[in-house]
Amino acid sequence: MTALAKLNFKSVKRSTARDPVIARRDKLVAALEEQQLVHAAALKGDHYQVEKTKWISNEQGERVAVKTHRRVRPWFFEQDSGWYVQCRYGARVIAADGTNNAVFVKSLKDVGDVIAVLLSATKSGELDAAVARAVERKPRTKPHAAKATANG
User: In this predicted model, which residue has the larger pLDDT, 5 or 103?
Assistant: First the structure.
């Protein structure tokens, strides 16, 4: 009896498909957790940066790994004698309540509370519909192209 005869072999195709709603939710949760770190750095008066590895060619033509810093842009800004906090998915601003795209607070300390609420809402799935609306692709047509084809 051979060693392979003791094993139970089966044919299987590995499923790598992932629910897109869960994938979007996880991406937004990771970004909001990063914004909490940005807020903590802003309270100290610093800029939050992420260290990343970049491959470049040196003078001898060899490819070497170099550590660089990537600055993370905050989703909050000061305006109108207070602070506005926006929730983003990629480059798009999410209208979390369906109509408005920002939350207004009086001080920088309150920004952390808003980020925490957005994080808990994202984890519970409350922002799934808003993220789905933000992810939708708009048809790219020229301004008067639809009228020209309807008349022609």
Answer: 103
